[in-house]
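Aim 2 progress. For Mutator family transposase, the working sequence is reproduced below.
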Amino acid sequence: MREMMKDYLKNNDVHVKDGTDVNSVMRDMMSVLLEGVLDEELDEELGYSKYDYRNKDTDNSRNGHSSKTMHTSYGDMDVAIPRDRNGDFEPQVIKKYQNTVTQDMEEKIISMYAKGMTTGDIESHMRELYDIAISDSTISRITDKILPIVREWQERPLEEVYAIVFMDAIHYHVRSEGRIVKRAVYIAIGIDMSGHKDVLGMYVGENESAKFWLSIMNGLKNRGVCDILIACIDGLSGFPQAIEAVFPKTEVQHCVIHQIRNSTRFVSYKDVKVLMADLKRVYAAPTEDVALSALEDFENKWASKYPKISKSWKDNWATLSTYFKYPEPVRRLIYTTNAIEGFNRQLRKVTKSKTIFPSDDSLLKMLYLATMDITKKWTGHRQDWGVIHSQLEIYFEERLAGY
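Predicted structure tokens for this construct:
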């Protein structure tokens, strides 16, 4: 809702000074939304959209608009009601003799854009509460109108420097060319030098690769990002090579918690407790030298039974051990990807009712709407950001000197 209001004010060069202006803006937004719904209803009735004469299969056609004054809680507003040549069209959103839009309906029409509801949910809601019948396809076409806003959001300018960028993936099923395929949505969350958190982008793809990540990194750079101090990832294939090509000074931290989970996945129940205690001596060590010594002890004790564990830690040590360079407050921030995993859990709550998405655009649309709803609560910064910022300024003094 907040993003829709901001976009409306920006695109229409509107300046709000007092409560009267707010009511005027809300009336205008309601009018635009209602007219959009009405036009989509007529498209559905005729079976073809405006100017799409190739798909026209009826002797009926559009016949301009008639004006109707609607009474709302924001004041009276004029709505252009589309007409058809044969006079068969009877709109459902604003019925023939209806001249009042209740506040509840106003809020519903606007909020359905900001909640990520399925078309079936919206259809049921409109029918049960307002006795209004709107088809799934009409609702889909209406909500598709936000796709340009999504694209604009994906390309918006970013900060020059981000202290931390967390990268992770969340998976969904999507219909594509008659098949159901698994799609990964790669999400980037950044913390800027003021300590404010923001979703930098969401990218729908099939397979992780250095080429895929390179396109994302170049996209961030084209949007104004000059440097990322530390990137925190969950073992994303091809990512270290890609970020080194675009942001060569960025330090990469592999999520230690995920490494621990992967290490203990196939460990016998009777060994887990002791093995975890030995592993903790590695990742909770005060220095990297102490951690390496503990890793050698771990390998000597467990390699004969679980050889892949110590090998995996050694193979990934370069990106697993980055956090040992920093003081404790910075370590706590970067050695896990909890910041982005919490966000992903909130996305899943919104999308759990949708087992299969009809298209990539449908998936992106719902995730964007959910993101706008989640991030409106991200108004402050971490309580310990003052300490973290001071430490980062000392550690990255030369890199931050130009910003």
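The radius of gyration is 27 Å. This observation will guide construct design in the next reporting period.
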